[in-house]
Amino acid sequence: MPDLFTHILVAWTVGTILSFRWKQFDGPNISLIMVGSVIPDISKIMLLFNYFHDNVHEIIAPIHLPIGSLVVAGIFSLFFQDKKMTLFLMSLGIATHYILDLMLINSTGGIYLLFPLSWNMWTLNLISNTDYNITIIALIIALMVYLFKNRIKNYKEI
Amino acid sequence: MLHKLYDYIKKISKNRILSLIILLIILGSLFIYYAENFPQHGQYGEINKSNKFVAFSGEVTAIYEDYFVLTYYNQIKNHDINVKSTTNVSLGDTVQIQGYFISPNTIQANIVVVSNSWDKSFVFYRSVFGLLILLIIFFRYWRFILNKFLFVRRI
């Protein structure tokens, strides 16, 4: 995985770009896209804090597959009033996560994107999972989008 | 305390509870299906078959002149595999390899992808920073109403 910071940045950027066209993508909803972007890595977050041993990680690994992430997003959405919208926004965040993860160099094969229908693995083998250049690029793009957003806001106020 | 919790649960609609149970069952089924089938399809599936192509990742635990020892977790215990490769590695590095067995415990590596321990630590710190930012932003926009068991918008 690229680091969570990169996933969150990309999710924020996507949400903010969408907000230029659709006003439903306001602050709270963009934050839900950001939450969605970290759902696939929930199992790894637990690992980071050594809650589980690696073999438990193997069991809960389907959370880091699209179908498992969507089910977890479905569970989370039950704790919000507008469940369908929440599920949609979190799904968008999940999609940004897998697009980034697909770019990773993965000599072990890649992601089981179509699990449980297929065990085929997918990867584009473009960047190393510890490469911080992707974080820098995501940060620069997010900064540009932030400045553009502020410019539009100032323009509207005038 | 338990009585209070029971009161809260009573207020949650039956549909939500039913949906939660169904989703948990689906998630549990995915876990079981994955755990049962992963050994046949996953990275460790063919690891003990001689001359078979293998791809897996692990941690470097020893380095010798023309090979290094890679330790990986499989099911409930650690396994050590000797990897023949000229790639420079250090103790504690995480290494992904593709290769084939040339003896029962030695792999000739074709592709070696190394992530050193500093890189891993840096990913960890960036991730923790990202999580903190996410928590701050999320709770800036949402608050949890305990008696409804729901997150509602602050604005």
UniProtKB/TrEMBL annotation, chain A:
Coiled coil: none annotated. InterPro entries: YdjM-like. Keywords: Membrane, Transmembrane, Transmembrane helix. It comes from the Archaea. The keyword Ribosomal protein does not apply. The chain crosses the membrane at residues 6-23, 30-53, 59-80, 87-112, 132-148. The keyword Transmembrane helix applies. Pfam families: YdjM. This is LexA-binding, inner membrane-associated hydrolase. It comes from Candidatus Methanofastidiosum methylothiophilum. The lineage of its organism: Archaea, Methanobacteriati, Methanobacteriota, Stenosarchaea group, Candidatus Methanofastidiosia.
TrEMBL record, chain B:
It comes from the Archaea. Keywords: Membrane, Transmembrane, Transmembrane helix. The chain crosses the membrane at residues 17-35, 123-142. InterPro entries: OB_2TM (IPR058927). It holds the Pfam family OB_2TM_halo. This is Uncharacterized protein. It comes from Candidatus Methanofastidiosum methylothiophilum.
